[in-house]
User: What shape does this take?
Amino acid sequence: MSLSSDQAAESLKEIDRTQRRSGEARRYAHSSPAFILWGVIWMVGYTATDFYPHHSGALWAFLMLVGFAGQLGIGWQRARAGEPHPGMNRYAGLRMLASFIAIGCFVTATYAVFGHVGWKQQASFVPLLASLFYVLIGLWAGMRFVITGIAVAALTLGGFFYLPAHFLLWMAAVGGGALILAGLWMRKI
Amino acid sequence: MEQPDTLIHQPLRLKLMAALRARPEGEKIEFVRLKALAEATEGNLGAHIQTLEQAGYVAVEKDFAGNRPRTRIALTRVGQRAFEDYVAYLRGIIGMGG
Assistant: This one.
């Protein structure tokens, strides 16, 4: 048996396509629980902020801790299932904590630099920042991240400009809902 | 390699090996996900996996996730080497070298 040059090229193309799909599917599946976790956190956080605006600082601090613990739990569960993230080792928790602190410092510094920032601007800045991360990650890791990022950014801006009176509830339902839907989408191949 | 590895040469088995090779060494893929990745039907997928298992190219593990039966497949080192040899063979044909 021997192959022609065209047949060999076709086989290599098929190998490349299947490997790309397999790699993307792995990255999507690994991200799915995190999207769902943060979707639920957004739903709870924005809804509670709408009803108890004076406690929003403490509330979001608590929810960030829940998110941090949840991320660690997801990583631990993956490792137990024999599918650890490449960066998941004994320093992963510290790196994740450092990432949370870095993001927190960046957001706080940005608010400080821009001076007085209203609640609506604050409530939309983090989702827009998250959208940017999704798009940037997606450019390297898979188109679904890009689509999720664009959708979350568009929904955030839509609520900000066209539904200012109910922006927090909009972000709870539509922003949080979009993340949960993205998480479910990521599970599919 | 003078001749292609006929076990891998079959188009669906080639896709299975490629999908498994894209994962970190030893990582298992669930049967249903592998089926979707290889765009296969359930019946023929089982037969092809069995062929690859008999050749020592893949390892099949059956267990329960909760109450749900689960079959997971991983590429073995022998399978990894065979796949890489096959890719090198293809590249040799089109003059890409290896």
